[in-house]
Design goal:
Layout lengths: L3 H27 L4 E2 L11 E2 L3 H18 L7 H24 L3 H17 L6 E4 L3 E4 L3 H19 L6 H19 L3 H21 L8 H21 L9 H5 L1 H16 L12 H7 L4 H22 L12 H20 L4
Antiparallel strand pairs: 1-2, 3-4
Helix pairs in contact: 1-2, 1-7, 2-3, 2-7, 2-8, 3-4, 3-8, 4-5, 5-8, 5-10, 6-7, 6-8, 6-12, 7-8, 10-13, 11-13
Length: 350
């Protein structure tokens, strides 16, 4: 745990990262104007700059480098750190190119797979995992496959959920706050420091992204945040000193994961092309039902807080009982999905 002096130093550093992110976001909004022009799938009516994620990535990268060179007590192996940071930046660079050139979904996923393969090659993988009804299992080579799917899946889930003003950035701030607090409690110092750097970076952008948004983060921001959360879950569980429970991050972002999975399955069962952009995620339907950007985002913030409380409780639950912490959240999301679809059908949206 931290003493008051060290904690004050961390707060000052976070404030510096926040200020840097804020300044960079302003520059991206008014100088580097990569525009998001509305179309039939958009939830906004006017062109808005969509390069704000560059500020998040830049602030996080600089903050992470300071942590690496200064914070000796928060070190992981060099190959793991550089593999994580290099792949996160590489993924964001590829995503920025996509923001500018609008490449196909297949090309986008192929480049994401390359980035994920690179971080796996550096050794950032799950080696052990608690499997319900089987106990803690040594994964062996299967760990590479599971880590690959996890990293790729959460990267895209977070990307898909970035569709309304303030939604993805605000959830990132709250989730990073809870994950950082849990990591500090578990003595996972690296994850703790990365979380407050991520929180400050996302908060600096959020100041410009709250409804009505002056700038969007674009794929460069949403894919980066999703990948970072996914990688920190793996690093915390297997590579950091405190061995943070892996299931903390899936619970923190459970509403994003559920919405993405539910929508994917629903569209697949209806025979719709799941790789094409659409406006039928649950959060998008809720918005089309008459709930504004602010209301939908605030709702997801509240759910993130409740999931954060569950994640805090998770670390005090015996290993074999942790899966049951997910059940009330799963039940709630099922009720929420049924309610949203019922309203959307009544309005002729689906």
């Amino acid at each position: 745990m931290l003493n008051a002096t060290v904690f004050a130093t961390h707060l000052a550093f976070a404030a510096a990262v926040f200020a840097l992110s804020t300044v960079l976001t302003g520059l991206m909004a008014w100088v580097v104007r990569v525009m998001d022009v509305p179309n039939e799938r958009s939830s906004h009516a006017r062109p808005v700059p969509k390069s704000g994620g560059v500020a998040i990535v830049a602030a996080f990268t600089l903050g992470s480098l300071v942590v690496y060179f200064v914070a000796d007590v928060a070190r992981i192996a060099d190959r793991h750190f550089w593999g994580f940071l290099f792949c996160a930046v590489l993924l964001s660079a590829v995503s920025f190119v996509d923001d500018v050139t609008q490449r196909s979904f297949a090309v986008k996923v192929a480049t994401q797979m390359v980035c994920v393969a690179v971080i796996l090659a550096t050794g950032v993988t799950l080696s052990r995992l608690y499997i319900p009804f089987a106990g803690e299992v040594a994964l062996g080579w299967a760990g590479y496959g599971l880590t690959f799917l996890w990293l790729l899946g959460l990267t895209n889930a977070y990307n898909f959920m970035d569709g309304l003003d303030g939604l993805a950035a605000g959830v990132a701030v709250i989730a990073a706050g809870f994950l950082g607090a849990i990591a500090l409690w578990q003595d996972s110092n690296f994850v703790y420091l990365m979380c407050y750097v991520l929180l400050a970076s996302a908060a600096g952008f959020l100041a410009f992204n709250l409804p009505p948004a002056k700038i969007f983060m674009g794929d460069v921001g949403s894919a980066f945040i999703g990948f970072t959360f996914a990688a920190l879950a793996v690093i915390g569980a297997n590579l950091d000193a405190g061995h943070l429970p892996f299931y903390v991050v899936p619970l923190l972002l459970f509403h994003f994961i559920f919405d993405t999975f539910f929508t994917f399955v629903r569209r697949a069962l209806r025979g719709e092309p799941v790789h094409l952009a659409h406006r039928t995620h649950l959060y998008q339907l809720l918005n089309q039902c008459g709930y504004g950007h602010r209301a939908v985002s605030m709702y997801h913030y509240a759910v993130t807080v409740v999931q954060g409380i569950g994640a805090l409780l998770l670390i005090f639950v015996e290993l074999e009982w942790r899966v049951y912490v997910f059940l009330p959240y799963l039940g709630y999301q099922a009720i929420y999905a049924a309610w949203v679809l019922r309203r959307a059908k009544a309005l002729g949206l689906v």
